[in-house]
Amino acid sequence: MEQDKGTEVSMSSVIEVRNLRKTYGTLVAVDDISFEVDEGEIFGMVGPNGAGKTTTIECIEGLRQPDDGSVQLLGMDPLEKRRAIANHIGIQLQESALPRRLRVAEALDLFASFYKRRADAEELLDILGLTAKRSSAFEKLSGGQKQRLFIALALINKPEVVFFDELTTGLDPQARRSMWDLVRQIREQGCTVFFTTHFMEEAQRLCDRVLIIDRGQIVALDTPEAMIGSLGAENRLVFTLPENQAPPALADLPQVRRVEQFGERVVVYGHGERFASSVVSALEDAEVDFLDLRTEQPNLEDVFLSLTGQEMRE
Amino acid sequence: MRGFSKLTLVNLKLYLREPIATFFTLAFPPLMVVLFGAMYGNDPSPMFGGYGSMDVAMPGYTAMILGTVGLLGVPITISGYRESGVLRRFQATPMRPLTYILADIVANLVTTLLGMMGLVIIGWLLYRVQFEGQVVAVILAVAFGGLAMFSIGYLIAGLAPGARTAQVVGMVIFYPMMFLSGASIPLEVMPETIERIADFLPLTYVVRLLRGLWFGDAWGEHLLETAVLAGVLLVCTALAARFFRWE
Hints:
Oligomer: heterodimer
Number of helices of chain A: 10
Distance between the termini of chain A: 42 Å
Helix content of chain B: over 70%
CATH superfamily of the largest domain in chain A: P-loop containing nucleotide triphosphate hydrolases
Distance between the termini of chain B: 22 Å
Largest sheet of chain A: 6 strands, mixed
Shape of chain A: elongated
CATH architecture of the largest domain in chain A: 3-Layer(aba) Sandwich
CATH class of the largest domain in chain A: Alpha Beta
Largest sheet of chain B: none
Structural class of chain A: alpha/beta
């Protein structure tokens, strides 16, 4: 069973989800979703809390049994071949713990002993900034340190596919950035990364492809660039009008798609290279004394808003 | 069995880092020797077949340690690990559940034997307690009785919804057994009715088996005890395997 690596099925997709469905009582957590993840990809799953991210990732990991549909991980059924697969993957769970008096270095040493392939524990401690904490008990670690320890444990067997459920929750902004660097580093070593997050910015910066999930269903699945592009590549120019100033006629400009006004605040939607400069010169020609002018790039938050009609809130 | 030896060692270390658990297995039994020895001494008594109170306390207190570890330690640790998510983290590795359980059992047996050693050393130093059995037979009996007690503990851990419940259930089962099975107080000093109650307590059979082997009986003279404990072990293991949950 152990020698079954599933690599004889030579294909580029390491994860295949077909019509996955999972309910808890009357709650439909995941509702008939299908997608594939390619080898060497950084694949992110984003969505609000309760969207079905953890259920999906745990079905792929073989920790949860789907009600319907099928999952293939490294060419195997993750439930049937759970232990064989476990040797080749790394898992960071959204909620888990270690014995409270277990020390950091002991935890790495213990978990390494469960696997055939082992990474250098000292190097992992160093990369994750835990070297100074190597003799600290689990219960004495801060939330961010625990998170980093669990990420180290997920990498202890040099996995081919690594799963991070809520990659940077509990980390401060600086630690979050260094985690992004680490994920890119992991991928450069040939590892496929599958993670969930509810930070749109994180998904946008890190992912090769993003799956947006809401209420158990796939809302969109594409590269972040293509998703943003599909909004019509709209840029926004925002400015404030002085009191009692009439808004100028900007909608006639070729680069402008539409204009919205909220009280004194004006939002101009448009596209093209000369979009901003044409609007500004039109404002100057009309002698409008605009204030607080700035441009906004569309991002995944906008994609989510436009596809679901709701703000992406934590 | 990958990870077995490491996990056993880690379990032992973790046990020794828990002050309360360590106190009840390693310090409490010798303290009872000091306390009850001061009250009753160890003069030979016809009631105990010519042995002293402290002589018969040695196998009794050993059974008490087995009960403490199996009925309090096991359910509290396992259900606590389940509640906090430790078991889930282990489940996500290629380690077999059986490896996990065996490592836990071996660590618990080693702890029990450490407690027994401390107990016997104090008993011998203070009262020159007698031992007429075979060391190997007694250690095997400790392991056998231990497995039976631990299997009850795993069953409690499997059935209890949370760590608090597991602790309460363990205490409700253990404390009456500790006093009514002859483990802490010899049944010879108890009224007849208590002895009849004792017949229904699994720990009683551990006490009888250990005491018999301790003073030189052959194992063949304790087939009833062996059968009862084997029954407890089989039934509880089967049920524990049925009700075990990682989360």
